[in-house]
């Protein structure tokens, strides 16, 4: 349908009080909207996820770890500035979003101190020079210089902050609550939020039920949360994100498909990883994908032909976002928006710290 390609068709009205500011404790006590057929749905709690999965199914997780990507510093003139690291382009050279932008002219130098307090006697431990403006993101390319004997990553842990999304404005959440319990590989600037609902106990319970688990890595960056700004969504260009789909995960997917099991992606970043890897490697007949390590710019919207993923666990996403379009490709835009209205009426909590939805293969448009 033509409406599926219009940005305005992915809008909905969300009461601001439904934007979750702090995650529930324990993690798996969040609510779960079960979409189990083309027409039906039901309500559950995340800890009961195993009731809806079958022995032989495979859950695929994104094991990226969020880095302390938000830094506060000062120009050498004394003006305070803020940066959000997005992607390392080369050694100590990063693409970053900057505030206020007018202070980040080419050649400008920024100093970062040994403490966020930035008192007059604080030691400068890191410097950055603005090399160029990035037209795609509106950000800047920054070349960092170490001013201490510690590594860049050690300094990030010391002076950086875990960046919560901008719609989380009054949160009591700890930085650890914005990491999945299985986070391993540092590099993301935002969490793969569908995974935030899992506890170690739930993971162990699912394994004992015969539900297998595998991992990919996608370092969540600007490609995931960059807004779609063109009315014809087919003209939207996704920013590339780094992906790794290891051999062990490929083998588990092949084995799952061979035994008639279902591949359930935990989050849209896993979808992009698996489907992006399949697109990049273009495996021969009889294969679903090959091991892959590289970048993907795959943009999934209604009409997409699925290659690997059978079902999805996902949070509730922002209006007009590429993530909303991805989920629409699985169950249909009109169906998804009607389910969002159900969630609003039932007072589900939305976005990163909110509740979740399980889309079973029986609900997916073939």
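^ Assign residues to that structure.
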């Amino acid at each position: 349908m033509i409406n599926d390609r219009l940005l305005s068709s992915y809008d909905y009205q969300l009461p601001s009080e439904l934007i979750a500011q702090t995650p529930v404790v324990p993690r798996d006590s969040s609510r779960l909207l079960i979409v189990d057929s083309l027409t039906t749905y039901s309500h559950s709690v995340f800890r009961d996820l195993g009731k809806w999965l079958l022995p032989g199914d495979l859950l695929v997780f994104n094991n990226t770890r969020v880095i302390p990507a938000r830094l506060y510093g000062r120009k050498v003139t004394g003006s305070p500035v803020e940066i959000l690291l997005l992607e390392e382009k080369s050694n100590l050279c990063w693409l970053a979003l900057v505030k206020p932008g007018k202070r980040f002219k080419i050649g400008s130098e920024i100093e970062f101190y040994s403490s966020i307090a930035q008192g007059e006697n604080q030691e400068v431990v890191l410097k950055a020079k603005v090399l160029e403006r990035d037209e795609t993101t509106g950000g800047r390319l920054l070349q960092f210089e170490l001013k201490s004997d510690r590594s860049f990553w050690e300094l990030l842990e010391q002076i950086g902050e875990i960046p919560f999304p901008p719609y989380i404005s009054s949160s009591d959440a700890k930085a650890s609550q914005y990491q999945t319990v299985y986070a391993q590989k540092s590099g993301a600037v935002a969490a793969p939020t569908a995974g935030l609902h899992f506890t170690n106990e739930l993971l162990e319970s699912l394994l004992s039920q015969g539900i297998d688990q595998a991992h990919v890595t996608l370092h969540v960056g600007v490609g995931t949360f960059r807004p779609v700004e063109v009315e014809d969504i087919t003209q939207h260009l996704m920013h590339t994100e780094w992906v790794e789909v290891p051999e062990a995960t490929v083998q588990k997917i092949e084995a799952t498909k061979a035994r008639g099991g279902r591949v359930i992606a935990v989050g849209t970043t896993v979808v992009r990883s698996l489907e992006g890897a399949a697109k990049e490697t273009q495996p021969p007949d009889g294969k679903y994908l090959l091991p892959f390590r590289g970048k993907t710019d795959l943009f999934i919207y209604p009409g997409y032909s699925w290659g690997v993923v059978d079902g999805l666990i996902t949070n509730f996403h922002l209006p007009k976002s590429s993530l909303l379009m991805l989920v629409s490709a699985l169950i249909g835009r009109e169906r998804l928006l009607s389910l969002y209205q159900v969630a609003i009426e039932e007072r589900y909590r939305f976005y990163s710290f909110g509740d979740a939805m399980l889309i079973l293969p029986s609900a997916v448009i073939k």
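The radius of gyration is 21 Å.
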